[in-house]
Amino acid sequence: MNASLPNPFTLPRPVGAVLARLPAYPGSMLLVTAINLALARQLPQDVKDMLQGKQLAIRVRDARLGFDFTWNGRRFAPSSPHADPDLAISANAQDFLLLAQRRQDPDTLFFNRRLVMEGDTELGLVVKNALDALELPVLDPAHWSPRAVLARMPGMASRRARP
């Protein structure tokens, strides 16, 4: 992990109050689209089997946003909010960003109580270990340039090779 981490930051309460008014479904749809593009194909089959039919939630505490989704056997799909999902992971927006950029270790955030996992902790550990094993620069801007995204799409490489 990078030694030069930014100072901890929490979104201002008024920002969280505004974001909390947003409808949940579009945000969950955006999140699962990103997860499906970046991670779904790389998850091991045993992890996919364990996720089957489980209600999952990502809670961004300072933004007062919740993203609810499930694994349907082929991909992640948004779902309606559940009061008690099988696994809920909560942190502030900055901490999720640091995790996605792999600039912060999830264990460090967990032991500092900045990352909270509730529900099926065995499932949470399996997901954490699977994500730790992936070599993917999730938020590296070069990874998400239009050219890089198109290159990863099936059939696009052959179209680009044509004169």
TrEMBL record:
Positions of the SCP2 domain: 50-132
Domain of life: Bacteria
Pathway(s) annotated for this protein in UniProt: Cofactor biosynthesis; ubiquinone biosynthesis
Pfam families, A to Z: SCP2 (PF02036)
Record keywords, A-Z: Ubiquinone biosynthesis
Keyword Nucleotidyltransferase tagged: no
Classification via InterPro entries: SCP2_sterol-bd_dom (IPR003033), SCP2_sterol-bd_dom_sf (IPR036527), UbiT (IPR016830)
Annotated signal sequence range: none
Job of this protein: Required for O(2)-independent ubiquinone (coenzyme Q) biosynthesis. Likely functions as an accessory factor.
Family stated for the protein in its record: Belongs to the UbiT family.
Protein name: Ubiquinone biosynthesis accessory factor UbiT
Organism: Ottowia pentelensis
Lineage: Bacteria, Pseudomonadati, Pseudomonadota, Betaproteobacteria, Burkholderiales
Gene it is expressed from: ubiT
